[in-house]
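Let's practice the habit of predicting before peeking. Look at the sequence and jot down your guess about where helices and strands might fall. Then scroll down.
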Amino acid sequence: MKKLCIYVWLMLSLSPVWAQFGLTQPQQITQPLHLNNQNCGLPPTLAYREFLMTTGGVKMDMCLIAPPNGAGDGWQLNGIAASARTNFNGSAAKAVGGYFAAEGFGEPTPVPGGYGGEVVGVYGRAQPRGKHWATGTHGECMSESPDEGVCIGLNSEVGRGIPLQPGQQDPQRYIGVNVQPREATRGVTGLNFQRPETYKDVINLEGAAVTLGKVDNVPFCMKFEASTQRLLFLRNCYSANADVAFVIDMNWKPGMPTTNATLTKPVLFAEHMKALQEHENRKLRANIDMLFGIRR
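Done guessing? Here is the structure:
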């Protein structure tokens, strides 16, 4: 009888809480939810200590010691797992497995050579402590659709959220993908492309300029000009008055004209190579003449 009274009292006391889980009313979490696995048999690591120091509305720490000798093959431990399915039904809807947003306000503490604050929508960190394949962020697109579409493993979208006023200069610097090795790291491969037989294009620039470095503190770049079918090497390449240092005519054939009104310094690749070869021949003849005392 005593147990029954306690049970009834608990049900009545917690009835407002159960109501929050009804189908017609969403659950609201007003206090941080911390699910720390205190019984994990693995030692605390740097990632775990950082996890404990962070503040979050939801914090989960999962721990798995897989069965030995291949018995745990295929096991997958997820700190957070989410799934979304959408029938578009003729509408421009979206299916998003996990949606995260971050906003930054105010001025951070300045640091030498950079900014003291960070705004990160999704932060992924891998901490390998053995012979593992590890990645901070992993994206996959596995198509099973018979219809036409675009399948992108990792997409980066940058730009202004609000338009600029007429004549206003954009103070923001935009970078689609940034590779930032730690200072003590060596032997890094910035971009790695595997299975070359699978590619139609490894990189498709669509006429965009590629900065190769700086000459006299002026950007030096390479760009393909589709209108003239020429590969341009430019100084001060992002200026309207860019200086064309060198040109390779991709359509050049013997007998074609050697001038192009659209270029400030028209140079044909074949002519350049011919002049370079003649210069090397003159140097070679001069060395031979000096060696054998020949005067011409």
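How did you do? The longest strand covers residues 218-225.
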